[in-house]
TrEMBL record:
Superkingdom per UniProt: Bacteria
Domain Nucleoside transporter/FeoB GTPase Gate: 44-132, 221-317
Keyword Calcium in annotation: no
Coiled coil: none
Name the record gives this protein: Sporulation integral membrane protein YlbJ
Keywords: Membrane, Transmembrane, Transmembrane helix
């Protein structure tokens, strides 16, 4: 009881101080809010919306149940999650955070997985997408395509390691779902039967399913946009009140011991709150060598930042999935990705770019170079996609109210 009251008091005081800080620095609050809005409007919304809609439809059509049956022999022994976790993992990797959390919560709401399975699953399926790592961070911020290969390898290999570690979370087997029926014959035939069962249980016509998928996806993205704006302003207020500088002073001793430049501390703290801003600030540091910058960026990409973690917490709050295992996994992923960046530095990154290498060839290969062009294209048409999508959402919402 006492802890609960103390927690509520701290939250109330912090919120009040935050409100006063906005009133004291209204211009800074407006500028940071506008920066967050531009990022959500032009990048986050158009890049996530297609994946969210497709994911919703695949769940409705039973494709996820089909994949779950096929992937069960792989996902269950490795990560102690059902085969449908393979779909969540793939979509989370392709679309980026918080898609993994959203799909995990959806599977839990549909009773496809248990709470402990969901906590294991969300711990390694919420990651940065390749478009952000290779396009925004490596090319947009560092102007270094080869670095993106290193960051991506450390990030995704780190995710696999975290998944293998988190398989030991929740050793109690008593709450395993009883959903694996006795199967006869081909695995594929059984998977098709399970997919048909899902389709038969959902009586909605395809038009209704599509409309609901669009509405639910846009509602989630509106929530994500609110968190991005909130943490963008919060990050700026911490800087205006020199709180970031004070924290940097405390960390200066530690960074000097491990040989890192003290100039990297403030961007690192900013990255703990919002990864895009932190990555950009780290790339602008000229007094730090590139390896140290890559290590710090790998950590904050894996940690996700408090902004993304707040988004995940909001999504998980709709279920009984606990946030604590996810938070522990993010810390683990941060340290593992940083360590992998050090180990993979020599084999995957070449300082002398005048000599053709495997990494350079791979980075410029058409199979990977499309990501860089896609990033530039997204920046040019992202706002239009967001605007048209919101118009469609308003129309669908209006029709729902009228009916």
């Amino acid at each position: 009881m006492y802890l609960s009251q103390t927690k509520n008091l701290i939250i109330a005081i912090s919120t009040t101080l935050f409100a006063f800080s906005i009133m004291i620095y209204p211009k800074a609050a407006f500028e940071s809010s506008l920066t967050g809005l531009e990022m959500w409007w032009g990048i986050v919304f158009p890049s996530l919306l297609p994946f969210f809609i497709i994911s919703e439809l695949l769940i409705c059509f039973g494709v996820v149940r089909f994949i779950g049956v096929i992937m069960e022999p792989i996902m269950r022994p490795l990560f102690r999650v059902p085969g449908s976790g393979g779909f969540v993992w793939a979509m989370g990797l392709a679309s980026g955070f918080p898609a993994g959390a959203k799909l995990t919560a959806r599977l839990r709401i549909d009773h496809e997985i248990t709470r402990e399975e969901a906590e294991r699953l969300v711990s390694f399926t919420n990651c940065s997408n390749p478009l952000f790592i290779l396009g925004a961070v490596s090319v947009g911020f560092f102007h270094n395509a080869e670095l993106g290969i290193l960051l991506a390898a450390a990030h995704y290999l780190g995710n696999i390691v975290v998944g293998l570690i988190m398989r030991f979370h929740g050793t109690n087997q008593s709450n395993q779902p009883i959903r694996q029926k006795h199967r006869k014959g081909s695995l594929v035939v059984y998977a098709i039967k399970r997919m048909n069962q899902v389709q038969q249980q959902d009586p909605r016509p395809i038009g209704k399913q599509l409309g609901d998928a669009v509405k639910h996806s846009i509602q989630t993205l509106l929530m994500i946009g609110g968190f991005i704006l909130l943490f963008s302003v919060l990050n700026r207020m911490l800087t205006e009140f020199n709180i970031t500088s004070i924290l940097a002073t405390f960390l200066a001793t530690f960074t000097s011991v491990i040989g890192f430049s003290t100039d990297i501390i403030s961007p690192f703290i900013s990255g703990l709150f919002e990864i895009t801003l932190g990555s950009k600030l780290i790339s602008d540091i000229s007094s730090s060598n590139l390896l140290h910058q890559a290590i710090i960026v790998s950590f904050i990409l894996a940690f996700n930042g408090f902004s993304v973690q707040a988004q995940v917490a909001s999504i998980l709050a709709e279920t009984d999935i606990r946030f604590k295992p996810f938070f522990i996994a993010r810390i683990l992923h941060g340290f593992i990705a940083s360590l992998l960046t050090i180990l993979l530095w020599r084999p995957l990154y070449v300082n002398d770019r005048t000599t053709p290498t495997v990494v350079e060839t791979f980075a410029s290969h058409p199979s990977i170079s499309w990501i860089y062009h896609a990033w530039d294209h997204l920046l040019s048409i992202g706002t239009l996609i967001t605007f048209l999508s919101l118009l469609i959402y308003i129309v669908l919402k209006w029709r729902t109210i009228m009916n």
